[in-house]
Design brief:
By secondary structure, this protein is α+β, with helices and mostly antiparallel strands. It has a single domain, classed as Nuclear Transport Factor 2, Chain: A, CATH 3.10.450.50. Helix content is about 35%, strand content about 30%. It has a six-stranded mixed β-sheet, with helices on one face. α1 packs antiparallel against α2.
């Protein structure tokens, strides 16, 4: 028997199952969503930085209404601040704290720097260094520290749900750089906080 030379039968591309098509489509959609989220994360971080600036402008302008617009109106919002009792929950308490402060202070000027902001999904945060000057009654006001603010997206808008102000202790307020290695090695050579002059 002689072998017949025939061209092989054309091969058909394998049919993909509906499950494979759906899986491929889902993977493409997930990739597209991830790429869009990267763009949204930057836009959201920029929006959070903008809210920090809006808060600072409201404080400098003693504008309680503008400050109110930065905060969520949820009853669980929380502010940790320096004045006793230190914990203020809900806008009623937080707004009252700011109103009392605005009533007592004049020539207020707050600045922030080193603002870092990040958002992931409906939550975001900002951290920053702050300084504040002005007059509290007849006394000069000079304070600085760090703050952390947590935001939640509500109805497509970012709103603050928690803020924590931490002042720099007065003994450290004048230090621009860390203590020298020699001072760290010999604590007796460093002045104690009680030896520092106190400001009224």
């Amino acid at each position: 028997m002689a072998a017949r030379l025939e061209s092989p039968a054309p091969t058909r591309a394998p049919r993909s199952s509906p499950v494979a098509k759906v899986s491929a489509l889902a993977a493409l959609l997930a990739l597209a969503a991830a790429l869009l989220a990267c763009g949204d994360a930057k836009a959201d971080a920029d929006a959070l930085r903008s809210l920090v600036n809006k808060e600072v402008a409201a404080i400098n302008g003693k504008d309680l209404k503008a400050l109110h617009e930065v905060w969520s109106q949820d009853n669980t919002i929380l502010l940790f601040d320096v004045p006793p009792p230190g914990r203020f929950k809900g806008w009623d308490q937080i707004g009252r704290l700011w109103k009392d402060f605005f009533d007592k202070v004049s020539e207020i000027h707050m600045t922030v720097d080193a603002v870092q902001a990040e958002a992931q999904g409906p939550l975001g945060y900002a951290t920053y260094d702050w300084s504040m000057t002005g007059r509290l009654g007849t006394y000069p006001l000079e304070d600085r520290g760090q703050a952390t603010a947590i935001y939640r997206k509500e109805g497509g808008q970012w709103r603050m749900i928690h803020e924590h102000y931490s002042p720099v202790p007065p003994a450290l307020a004048g230090q621009e750089k860390p203590a020298s290695p020699a001072a760290a090695a010999n604590p007796a050579a460093s002045p104690s906080p009680s030896a520092s002059p106190k400001t009224p």
